[in-house]
Amino acid sequence: MKRLPFEPPTKHYDTSIQHIDEQLCNLLNKRKEQSNDPGFPPLEKIVEWSMKYNLYEDFLSSFFGSLLLEEEFRPRIEPEGFLKHVPVLKSVEVGENLYTITFIRQFENASVVHLTMDWYEPDDSRHLRPRRVRDHAFLQLEIDEKYDCRTTGGGGSTGHMTYDFVVSPPLPDDVSGLILTFKEYSTPFKNKPTGMEIVISISEDNSRERS
Fold it and tell me: This protein's superkingdom (predicted)?
C-alpha cells in the first residue's frame, strides 16, 4: 500500500517555540544514539511524568509508542520500470501451512518477492471465517543488511493467502544462493515477534524451516 503524502494539520505555527522544537529533535537524536532498543517506559514513569510536566498519560503513552515505529517512516522505494519475472517455485511446509515463493518481479529500481501461503480448510468450515483470518499474523522479509525489505500487505481467500515484499536495491537476476527469511509478528510492526521463521534457500532443491 502506498503511503499518502503528508499534509500539515494546520497552517499556523508559533515561531517563538521553534528553538524548543529543535531541542526536541536534538533530544530524540541523542536518545537514538544512546540506545538502539529503548523499549517502552514503565507505566509508573508515564504516570509520574504526566503529573510532573502537566501532560496527559494517554498522550505520553501514544508519544513513546510512536517512537518505536520510526523505521516504518523510512522513505520507501516504489517499484518502477518493470523488466521481467524470475520463476522460483520453492516451498517449505511449516505446521499445517505450505509457503511458496512462486516468482520474483524485477524492476529497474527494486524487486518484488511474491509469497503464497496455502492450507487445508475442511468443507464443513467454509461457512465460518477462514482459520487464518481468525489467527492472522504478519510476515516480514529479511535477506541481509544490504537489502531493505518491506511488505505491501496481503490478501486471499479460504485456504490461501498471498504476500508481496518490495526489496531494494534490486535482487540479481540469478537468484541461486539467495536465502530469504520470513519472520512472523503478531502486529504489523516488528515489535512483537512470535518466534516463528520460514527460511527458503533458493540454492537448494528443498527449502528448510527454522523455528
Answer: Bacteria
